[in-house]
Write a structure and sequence with these properties.
Shape: globular
Oligomer: single chain
Strand order of the largest sheet: 1-2-3-4-5
Number of strands: 5
Number of helices: 4
Largest sheet: 5 strands, mixed
Strand content: 15-25%
Helix content: 25-40%
Order of helices and strands: EHHEEEHEH
Length: 156
C-alpha cells in the first residue's frame, strides 16, 4: 500500500524543499562538489524555504534521501537557475534534466520569458551538461561576465 506523498521504491519525486531538509541539501552540495558560497548556510536555506520564493527551491527525493536540487530564482523580470546539483550515485540517469525542466515550469508560471543559468566555468562536467542542453535552447552567452559583491549582514 502506498501512503500519499510517498513515491514507489526507486522512483524520484521532485518537489519544493522543506525546512527540515536544508541540512541534507547542504550535504548534497558538498558531496556533489558544488563550490561553496557565502549564502550556503543552514540559516539562509531555511530562510529561502520559508519565503515567497520557496516553491522554486526544488529537491529530488529517492527512497527518502535528497539526491538532487535546483533553485529557480525570479526577480520579476527574468528567471535564473542556481544550485543544480545531483548526488554522484544518482548521476547519468536524466535527473539533472528533470530538475531543470521543473525549474523552467515553475519560472514560466511566474511569467519568465528568458532564463539564465550560473555555471562554474572550471567545472567541466557542469559546463558539459549545460552545453548538452543546446538542443533545449540553452546557449552560452559570450557577451557576459559576472561581478559579485558579498554584502555584510550589518548595515554600513
Amino acid at each position: 500500500m502506498m501512503i500519499e506523498g510517498q513515491e514507489p521504491t526507486g522512483a524520484v519525486a521532485i518537489r519544493p524543499c522543506r525546512a527540515e531538509e536544508c541540512e541534507a541539501v547542504l550535504a548534497l552540495w558538498r558531496r556533489a562538489g558544488a563550490v561553496p558560497s557565502p549564502t550556503d548556510t543552514l540559516e539562509e536555506l531555511r530562510r529561502l524555504v520559508r519565503s515567497e520564493h520557496g516553491d522554486r527551491f526544488l529537491v529530488a527525493v529517492q527512497a527518502g534521501a535528497i539526491v538532487g536540487s535546483v533553485i529557480g530564482g525570479w526577480d520579476g523580470w527574468r528567471g535564473n537557475i542556481y544550485r543544480l546539483a545531483v548526488a554522484p550515485e544518482a548521476r547519468r540517469r536524466g535527473l539533472a534534466r528533470r530538475l531543470v525542466h521543473e525549474a523552467e515550469l515553475a519560472l514560466r508560471a511566474k511569467g519568465a520569458r528568458r532564463l539564465s543559468a550560473l555555471v562554474e566555468r572550471h567545472e567541466a562536467h557542469a559546463v558539459g551538461f549545460w552545453d548538452s542542453l543546446a538542443t533545449a535552447g540553452y546557449q552560452r552567452d559570450p557577451r557576459m561576465l559576472r561581478y559579485v559583491k558579498a554584502l555584510d549582514a550589518r548595515p554600513t
